[in-house]
Amino acid sequence: MASTPANSANLNSGAGTVIWDGVATLSTNTQQHIYYVAKSGIDTNTGLNINTATLTFGHAIALASAQTPSSSNLFSIVCLDDGVYTEDIVGVSYVDIYAPNANLVATTTGLTVADNANYTFKTMSVPTGSSGIVKSSAQSAASWVFIAEITCAGTGAGFSNLSTAGGVMLCEWKTLTVTNGTAIGSVVSTTGHTHVRGGDIYISGSAGTAVGLGKVTSGSIVGHIDHILLQGSGTGTAIHMVGGLIDVTVNTLNATTAYNLNGVTGSTILNLFCNDLTGTETVTNGAFGNVWTVPTFPANQAGMLNGQLVIGSTGANPAVATMTSSAGSITITNGAGTINLETAAATTTWTLVTANTAASVNSGYITNKAATACVITLPATAAVGQIIEVCGLGATGWSIAQNANQYINFGSQVTTTGIGGSLASTLTNDAVKLLCTTTNNGFTVLSSIGNLTVK
């Protein structure tokens, strides 16, 4: 047997090992057989060595299938040239296809993968209206696919696991471009469990129907993607869900619509970790969007400082910032791994008044007006828990007046609501402490001295 390059193959007509730069390995025992495909071949050949290669993958699959492949009777189809192969391929279980330099051009149904089989191509072109890589509904085991570059024209689709019998598809790629189709999954059909480990998904749609990841009804898509990005002036949706689960990590996501989650047909859950996310975010009808994006740090700051928190920001990445008190009523002390909040107990500021006065909250008034009672009018605005106090000094006493809709509770008695109501002293040193119990309008006597008059 002649030696071969590192990214080539051992060209046995029987059993052997095929290695391509460590990316894909088909380790075989003496029961695995290899059929060869080449642009120099013809479909009347046996395909048992490179010199008798078949011209199409379909013919090689038919030859392998006739040998009744099984877990103990494995087959591989090997193509080492960089030719363009225009055909739809229907895979067979236990028959791998290894064509690391070949360029596959789909016509209608694309590449239909089978259970317990691996597939490797360099590129794949999917025309408009055609399927890309598909796992059929009856499949119930795993299929692994690696295609370095996939380009889908028009409504052409990428990876679609249509299994409803528990079949799993493991998808790997470097670049995957969709125009107005769906890159992975489906927005119209139920799809099975799909693992993704890819480079970039490019959305270049002109009709706005392009979708990066699509999920309806049930099933799941899990894994890692480097980027989901708009290409040129295209529009589209990075993640579209109407049911099912998508659990992925994406380094950068930039699309017209970052995600559109609709829970109308059942459970819809998106678990997304993204370093940088741009696009409209929509969650409706009971869907769950568990989305985490890396927070934006202040300029010239690489890490979080004492007391900083990650704070959500609608329509943007969360921000790293410290807590503030807009009115200064709370004292915030930041430490290493700690935040201490202190609020001072409310105190009453007392003022001697000799004329009618409009009261302020948390204030006390000592009345000493000549000739007539000093009128203290309740503040028009007061928050629940705020205090007003009045204490008489002069012989004329005091009266607490009300604004529209205000009233004072004094034990079992209540003043007349509005401007006509009041609470007044009867003797020189009478006093009262009022607590706001209903925002702006309701006040209650906490304590009093004297026999006050309720009007």
Number of domains: 3
Low-confidence stretches: 1-31
What's the count of strands? 35
Could you tell me the strand content as a percent range? over 45%
CATH fold assignment of the largest domain: Pectate Lyase C-like
* Residues in helices, as a percent range: under 10%
Count the DSSP helices: 1
Q: Report the CATH architecture of the largest domain.
A: 3 Solenoid
Our Rg estimate from Cα atoms comes to: 38 Å
Mean pLDDT: 89
Q: Major sheet, described briefly?
A: 13 strands, parallel
Decide which structural class fits the backbone. mainly beta
Overall 3D shape: rod-shaped
State the CATH class of the largest domain.
Mainly Beta
Please report the distance between the alpha carbons of the first and last residues. 114 Å
Describe this structure in words.
The strands form 7 sheets. Strands 3, 4, 5, 7, 9, 11, 13, 14, 15, 16, 17, 18 and 19 form a 13-stranded parallel β-sheet that branches. Mean pLDDT is 89; it is low at 1-31. The protein is built from 1 helix and 35 strands. A hairpin with a 2-residue loop joins strand 30 (407-410) and strand 31. Helix content is 2%, strand content 51%. The longest helix is centred in the N-terminal third of the chain and has 9 residues, at 57-65. With 455 residues, it is mostly beta strands. It has one helix at 57-65; strands spanning 18-20, 24-26, 33-36, 75-78, 84-86, 89-90, 95-105, 111-113, 117-126, 133-135, 142-152, 159-161, 168-178, 182-185, 193-203, 210-230, 236-262, 268-284, 288-293, 309-313, 316-321, 330-335, 338-343, 349-353, 357-358, 363-367, 374-377, 387-392, 398-401, 407-410, 413-414, 422-424, 431-438, 442-449, 453-454. 39% of the residues are buried. It has 3 domains: 18-293, Pectate Lyase C-like; 309-343, no CATH class; 349-454, gp9 (Jelly Rolls, Sandwich).
